[in-house]
Design brief:
single chain, 348 residues, alpha+beta, eight-stranded mixed sheet, 16 strands, 30% helix, globular
């Protein structure tokens, strides 16, 4: 099976996101030939890469980021905020669909495709493992972070950060959530590959080791190619905040602690029905599913049966995926935000 490989070298976060935009959207729309791509980069400067569904002003300590002169951007994939900076390798695998190389349900994207990374790291003498969540292990410590996005047309972005000589984990003072270091590293020690005395740790060498791992594991053959780049704006410098549309009428906010971190819902109501909604947090999902969830709830009453019915109609049908939060937790948090919005409207 043919696939393309591109070592992009030292890149800014905007460059990485622009390439991801071009490949993910182009492959999903059919504008780009549906041939898998693997694109690897190193980072030239420091960024906070917020998860696709996080709100900057809720998840991050914006003052601390500003003091450290670290810009914030939103990446394409879900999950917690991570460090994109020198010493970190970024690997992006683009597939025309989740089952391009092996039969893969949407909720098993990480489970299936992490096997190529494990093969590549194993060839370097590391005892690499995956524990079923979003963290990558080697020699008993977390060395990387895994996440994904599925475009509306079905194209998949599977993303991996690897700590080579610098951490992928953010400084804990950058967090605004009421959580400690365990939130950042899954409750286990994090490490850089340099701690394991590897002979060849140059980022381009590591990138090709990963590519070889995918070749062995999935029987693919990578060819050198230059990845397309989108000219559309890529980096979101300003913090994400609740839109003005969610400031009209009653506005309610609810937050729940879930297995992957936090889940938040902001709601606005009119005539005891949802008039607007924003579902945020550290979960992993396909963006089309989150969009359909919002659209399905608009105009619905703040009742358990209504909300639960919409949630299950979207995420119980295998067409969309939500990882890191149970459907019951999502339902209860949406209801709590609706109730808070009702109270806000009654007692502004």
């Amino acid at each position: 099976m043919r696939a393309n490989f591109h070592w992009a070298g030292g890149s800014e976060a905007a460059d990485v996101v622009a390439r991801e935009r071009a490949l993910l959207s182009g492959m999903g729309s059919g504008e780009i030939e549906p041939v898998p791509w693997m694109v690897c980069s190193a980072f030239r400067s420091e960024f906070v890469a917020a998860g696709a569904y996080q709100r900057h002003d809720s998840a991050l300590n914006l003052d601390a980021c500003a003091r450290m002169k670290t810009p914030i951007m939103t990446r394409w994939t879900g999950g917690i905020s991570t460090r994109w900076g020198p010493g970190v390798l970024h690997m992006a695998l683009f597939l025309p669909n989740a089952s391009a190389w092996t039969e893969t349900p949407m909720d098993r994207i990480i489970n299936r495709y992490v096997r190529g990374i494990l093969s590549g790291l194993g060839s370097m003498g590391l005892e690499a493992a995956y524990n079923g969540k979003e963290f990558l292990w080697a020699n008993g410590k977390h060395i990387g972070y895994l996440s994904f996005e599925v475009a509306p047309g079905g194209a998949v972005l599977f993303e991996c950060l690897l700590a080579m000589t610098g951490p992928w984990v953010l400084p804990k003072e950058f967090l605004a959530y009421p959580a400690g270091e365990s939130y950042l590293s899954g409750g286990f020690p994090s490490a850089c590959l340099k701690e394991f005395d590897l002979e060849a740790l140059a980022p381009d060498v590591l990138a090709r080791k990963l590519a070889e791992g995918f070749e062995r594991r999935f029987g693919v053959s990578f060819e050198e190619a230059k990845a397309p780049v989108s000219s559309a704006p890529a980096v979101e410098e300003a913090p994400r905040r609740t839109d003005d549309r969610l400031r009209r009428g009653g506005v309610g906010r609810a937050r729940s602690r879930v297995s992957i971190g936090f889940l938040e819902v902001y709601a606005s109501i009119e005539n005891e029905r949802f008039s607007d909604l924003e579902v945020c947090g550290d979960f992993l999902a396909d963006s089309d599913g989150i969009r359909r969830l919002r659209e399905g709830l608009l105009g619905r009453g703040i009742r358990n049966d209504d909300v639960e019915g919409v949630v299950r109609s979207i995420f119980d049908q295998k067409k969309h995926v939500l990882l890191g939060a149970r459907l019951a937790e999502l339902t209860s948090t949406i209801l709590a935000a609706g109730e808070a919005a009702t109270e806000s409207k009654l007692h502004p």
